[in-house]
Design goal:
Layout lengths: L3 H14 L2 H8 L3 H15 L4 E3 L4 E3 L1 H29 L2 E6 L4 H12 L5 E6 L1 H10 L4 E6 L6 E4 L1 E4 L28 E3 L6 H13 L7 E3 L3 H11 L2 E4 L1 H7 L2 E4 L6 E7 L3 H8 L3 H8 L2 E2 L1
Parallel strand pairs: 3-4, 3-5, 8-9, 8-10
Antiparallel strand pairs: 1-2, 5-12, 6-12, 6-13, 7-10, 7-11
Helix pairs in contact: 1-2, 1-3, 1-4, 2-3, 5-11
Family: Belongs to the LysR transcriptional regulatory family.
InterPro entries: LysR_HTH_N, WH-like_DNA-bd_sf, WH_DNA-bd_sf
Protein name: LysR family transcriptional regulator
Length: 294
């Protein structure tokens, strides 16, 4: 079977230098290989491309007709190779949660490079991450899903400024305002944008209503900064992961009445792109998210 591209390259090199010796040297192949490839191309086309003498070669009329097309094919193949190399080296844009700390993202990027994946992280909120993947602006995204459906699970709890001591959990019913406090707004539980998803927000809201909290005591903050500010200035609490609580200098405990968690999965327009992320060690991605692989 003729390797047409290799034969075309040999023909272009030999015809351009007017000699099998010089052409083979330019193509970095043995002269005998260049001769065989040109002969195979002539057999493939069914006509002679070159006339040979003891010292030089010259294009036949057929060879003159074919040379421009053959040269275009070689140039296109070279351009295709260069494009493929650039595409292979282009960073892999991955939409990630905004709650991922810069240091955690840096460790993810470094670890992924050891597995031949050059990640370009794009922090975004839950809805935006899914849209970035659907629209192709990101090759893949780590999207929010119910924890039972995800590849990664991040535990959630309540964090506050004051150390709760030896208690193993914080219960929402302890935030219920007493009769003397009915005029006060009560301590709030802030939900940050990353957890403004039904499988977290709705469960927490239903729990708050079930234990007698006022509707305003479970509120969605515009950002984790706003949520943390409530903890520092008003003795509120923020729903977050243990790692986030450490970063914010807050004391974290699980929610006593409910096992709350974030779940994450990979989505992408192309299955191959999703599989490239899934092929990374689960703990490498899990540490970035603040949890572990399932």
């Amino acid at each position: 079977m003729v390797d047409v591209l290799a034969a075309c390259k040999a023909f272009v090199a030999v015809s351009g230098h007017g000699s099998f010796t010089a052409g083979a040297a330019a193509a970095r192949i043995p002269q005998s290989v260049a001769s065989r490839r040109v002969a195979a191309l002539e057999e493939h086309f069914g006509a002679k491309l070159l006339t040979r003498t003891s010292r030089s070669v010259a294009l036949t009329p057929f060879g003159q007709e074919m040379l421009p097309s053959v040269r275009r094919l070689v140039e296109l193949a070279d351009a295709l190779r260069d494009d493929a190399e650039r595409a292979r080296l282009r960073p892999f844009r991955l939409a990630v949660p905004e709650v991922c700390a810069p240091s955690a993202l840096a460790r993810l990027v470094a670890g992924a490079r050891a597995h031949d994946l050059d990640i370009d992280p794009r922090p975004a909120g839950p809805a935006e991450r899914a849209e970035l993947a659907r629209g192709g602006e990101a090759r893949a995204a780590l999207v929010a899903v119910p924890p039972g459906d995800g590849a990664w699970r991040v535990p959630l709890g309540l964090a506050c400024r004051a150390d709760p001591g030896d208690v193993g959990a914080l219960y929402l019913d302890t935030l219920r305002a007493g009769r003397a406090e009915r005029s006060a707004r009560g301590r709030r539980v802030w939900v940050q944008p990353e957890d403004d998803v039904p499988h977290v927000r709705d469960r927490l809201t239903r729990l708050g209503a079930a234990v007698g909290l006022r509707p305003a005591q479970v509120a969605v903050a515009a950002s984790v900064v706003v949520a943390a500010a409530g903890c520092y200035g008003a003795d509120d609490l923020v729903l977050c992961s243990p790692e986030q609580a450490d970063d914010l200098g807050l004391h974290w405990r699980p929610v006593g009445e409910e096992d709350l968690a974030r779940g994450y999965a990979v989505t992408a327009r192309l299955r191959e792109d999703a599989n490239r992320v899934r092929s990374l060690p689960a703990p490498l991605v899990g540490r970035c998210l603040g949890g572990a692989g399932r």
